[in-house]
Amino acid sequence: MIQAERLRPSWLIASLGVLFGVVVASLVIGPADIGVRAALGEVLDHVPGVNVDSGLSETNAAIVWKLRAPRLVLGILVGAMLSIAGASYQAVFRNPLASPYQLGAAAGGGLGATIAIVNGWGDGAGFFDALPLLAFVGAIGAVGATWVLSNAAGGVRSIASLLLAGVAVTAFLTAIQTFIQQRNVDTIRQVYSWILGSLANSSWNEVYLALPYVLVMTAVILVHRRRLDVMSVGDAEATTLGLRPARVRAVVVVAATLGTAAAVAVGGLIAFVGLIVPHTVRLVAGTSNRVVLPLSFIVGGAFLAGVDLLARSIATPAEVPIGVLTAAIGAPFFIMVLRTSRRLVA
Amino acid sequence: MMLRCVDLRVRLGDREVVRGVDLEVEAGSWVTIIGPNGAGKTTLLRALLDLVGASGHREVAGRNLAEIDGRERARLMALVPQIPEMPPAMRVTDYLLLGRTPHLGMLGVESAEDLAIVGDVLAQLDLEQLADRPLAQISGGERQRAVIGRALVQQVQLLFLDEPTSALDLGHQQDVLELIESLRHEHGLTIISTMHDLNLAGDFADRLVLLADGRVEATGSPETVLDPAVLGATFGTAVDVIEHEGRMVVLPRRSER
Q: What pLDDT does residue B94 have?
């Protein structure tokens, strides 16, 4: 019997298993000594309609529910979003190196965050904290500028003009950001700590800020998973197969960008996740977007939450910036992927 | 009438590449567009498929092409490109399944029927053994059959072939064209192709359209179009046309030394 390439249940179960392992480890590991059963009980107790006595002291209960749990959930959301967005960009631009950062999202987010920090608006106080909002607006604005510029230059139908416009916008915004940063050297440490990415100090507020974007944008991307497979034969052939490539590209780019902007807003500029995770999934489980997109989401969540656990554990009580770790793991990995993909293409 | 165009024009940059082409293609026939390099053969094909901006009137199956949306077009006509983009890691089966795209719903889930159609085409084109192979690991002839297979899976009435034999050796050229001929009869397809090789073109087409400099220079049966005087003028070289066992053979004449 003929069968289309699809996500095999074994891969789904394995990836969810890894995610669950990371969840448990993240809830349990830390300076405060809390057991697996107590930690899970405390989390379950917060599920509506469930009543479990975890037996934890008030302090330890707060450590699990107010410190470790939101940080873990945020790590999963950010990692999942950056990964599935990276996979979408790679599919839509048929470029294994594509990521939302290339269209200016990182530079725009960085500029927004820098403005918030040097003005003292970003003190992490509550839902309407200016830092994530400005970072979000900056990221969206930058990708929007790239889009408009590319339209003026040669049309977004041309992939090259879009990527080149991204280079120009990134260079320009980075220049402004560096200028502002140089004029406010007193806040340079804060700016850098944001740019390198961090999930420390995260609360449920950040989770609520990012969650709707992550869910909606992921759903939009997943609906297009088969169309993205069709796009792999190029725009002209995809058109003869009944697709509107320019429209699919626009919808997927907008969804991936909004999702990325939300992730950047709450997690800072965490590098390489959008490259490492989708490429690993492709190498291991298959190249169809029906496999790559959902699996990147799950594995990306597990990966970033796992790296974050590492970031807060290897130098306790200090924190290693998570962006430093993802890049340190990502760069060598990247070389490996390049070597392999050259073999695949040749 | 399967396809009709009136005063079709295509401008690429500041050059008019297709310059007022009128064409009528009857249902079930095989029409081959011939002509020298740069005559506009491929551009004409792309214009008939609306893949390039063109002016003029186009009709498919009696309907104005402008009023048919993309999905429906893809259920009426399919293209076998000269140099298809073939994702190296995609399996032959999944490649053929792409042809079901215009028949699928919003979520793009293939039904048992879609899979059965692909299974039939794999069997018909002798691709069953290769069904699970990645496209990077099959030969040139097999690739060409896979592309034709994808077009068949689309279940169209009109099949466009852009230089279907240009990448193939003598034996595979013949195989592919005979395959297309048998599929035409079996599925009642209308074929519009471009072709470089005048002998193959004359052998397989019902009607030839000789294109030169974006205009139709001659059209009709191979016997009338493959005329030494017309070909000589169009291709810029003297040719002999010999009849051999009821087939037209075009032989370029060497220039005198």
A: 96
CATH number of this structure's domain A21-345, picked from the four choices 3.40.50.11810, 1.10.3470.10, 3.40.50.300, 3.90.1150.10: 1.10.3470.10
Task: State how far the Cα of A83 lies from the Cα of A294, in Å rounded to an integer.
Answer: 10
Q: How many angstroms separate the CA atoms of A221 and A215, rounded? A: 10
* Nearest by Cα to A241 from B190, B13, B102: B102
Q: Which of A201-205, A280-284, B232-236 ranks highest by mean pLDDT?
A: B232-236
Does a cis peptide bond (omega within 30 degrees of 0) precede residue A245? no
Domain that holds residue B70: 3-252
Query: Is the confidence at residue A124, as pLDDT, over 60?
Result: no
Kindly tell me if the per-residue pLDDT of A345 is higher than 50.
no
Residues of chain A positioned with their CB less than 8 A from the CB of B119: 1-2
What's the pLDDT at A196? 82
Domains of chain B: total: 1
pLDDT of A203 > 90? The answer is no
Q: What is the pLDDT of residue A338?
A: 67
Per-residue confidence at A346, pLDDT binned at 50, 70, 90?
A: very low
Phi, psi of B242, rounded to the nearest 5 degrees: -115, 140
Tokens 């990966």 sit at which residue? A303
Q: Which of B74, B107, B115 sits opposite A242 (nearest CB)?
A: B74
Contact A233 B101 (CB under 8 A): no
Please tell me the predicted confidence (pLDDT) of residue A147.
85
Summarize the confidence of residues B9-30 as an average pLDDT: 94
B94 closest CB neighbour out of A5, A227, A234: A5
Q: Quick check: A285 and A291 in contact, CB under 8 A?
A: yes
- The B residues from 186 to 205 touching A (CB cutoff 8 Å) are none
Full 3-state SS string of B221-241: CHHHHCCHHHHHHHHCCCEEE
List the one residue out of B3, B9, B18 whose CA is nearest residue B211. B18
